[in-house]
Design brief:
- The chain is mainly α.
- The protein has helices spanning about 5-20, 40-50, 55-70, 75-85.
- The chain has a domain at about 55-89.
- The termini are far apart.
Length: about 90
């Protein structure tokens, strides 16, 4: 089926189901992330590593990989530390 025809059918279906209000753009962002790696246990461990053991983000990253087999990027670890309001420098 041609893409333009498919798009038109989608718009017609929306209009028939909900009227004019449904013709506005729909959100495309997912409501949840099924591949999310971060859970409360990981957040607690990162907080403990920073506050009690005084580890930096790169060391936390290597410890997570070594001990918990959890591979997180440095950006993710920095974001968690920032959300916890724990200085990383």
């Amino acid at each position: 089926m041609d893409r333009q025809i498919k798009a038109r059918l989608t718009w017609v279906k929306r209009y028939n189901e909900s009227g004019v209000q449904s013709l506005s753009d729909q959100r495309r962002r997912p409501h949840n992330s099924p591949n999310k790696k971060i859970n409360q246990q990981i957040i607690k461990w990162i907080s403990y590593s920073r506050v009690q053991r005084n580890l930096g983000a790169r060391r936390i990253q290597s410890e997570l990989l070594r001990l918990n087999e959890c591979k997180l990027s440095l950006a993710t670890i920095h974001k968690i530390l920032k959300n916890l309001d724990v200085s990383c420098t």
